[in-house]
Design a protein that fits this description.
Strand order of the largest sheet: 1-2-3-4-5-11-12-13-10-6
Shape: elongated
Number of domains: 2
Structural class: alpha+beta
Radius of gyration: 20 Å
Order of helices and strands: EHEEEHEEEEHEEEEEH
Number of helices: 4
Length: about 200
């Protein structure tokens, strides 16, 4: 059974601002785990069953796994303004475009790709987007490459969606493209308003 709590003492302004974007009945909802005898308090729990956790500080892997195991539909929202060395870089093509199904993105700050066949043969050749094979590929306005020089590695262990808030009107969902040469992390941009409206309208 859920109990609504309304105590915001000791929270950061960032944390509080996110909660206040949602109706009062959605905020600080507490759930009891009868099996483990633990109390889980959701920052925001929506009527559709989605839980939003606003994370302003680092978290350990055990805590991340505990919350993800308890909440079946969890979305992490991280205060990216506190990340060191985090920068949004370049527009990407549609990562699911069939035209690039035979290519992997390179894990560098410069937008480039390699052919999967070359990678499997052990002789990958880096192709930039001026190369004949890639230069006509349209870039999107919603997918971006990024760099994170000092990442909090625990977030790459998350099974649930991660949203990075860098301040302003836009937020970024961290996504991974499955690749032979290693999964490629990228960002999907959206407005903060459109994200919130999914749950309050």
């Amino acid at each position: 059974m859920a109990k609504i709590l309304r105590n915001y003492h000791g929270e950061t302004e960032w944390h509080r601002d996110w909660k206040l974007a949602f109706p009062l009945a959605f905020r600080e909802v507490s759930f009891s785990d009868q099996v483990l005898g633990e109390l889980h308090r959701a920052d925001v729990h929506t009527p559709c069953g989605t839980t939003l956790e606003f994370q302003n500080s680092p978290i350990c892997l055990k805590e991340l796994q505990s919350r993800e195991a308890f909440y079946p539909k969890l979305i992490w929202i991280l205060n990216g303004k506190k990340f060191k060395g985090f920068r949004v870089l370049k527009n990407l093509p549609d990562v699911d475009d069939p035209k690039i199904a035979a290519y992997d993105f390179c894990h560098t700050d410069h937008l480039s790709m390699i052919r999967k066949a070359d990678f499997l043969a052990g002789r990958p050749k880096v192709l930039n987007f001026y190369h004949q094979e890639l230069k006509k590929l349209p870039l999107t306005s919603y997918y971006y490459s990024f760099c994170w020089k000092h990442p909090h590695r625990v977030w790459y262990e998350a099974k649930n969606p991660i949203i990075v808030d860098l301040g302003g009107h836009f937020i970024y969902q961290l996504k991974l493209r499955k690749q032979l040469s290693g999964d490629y992390p990228y960002l999907h941009i959206m407005t903060r308003k459109s994200f919130i409206e999914q749950y309050v309208l």
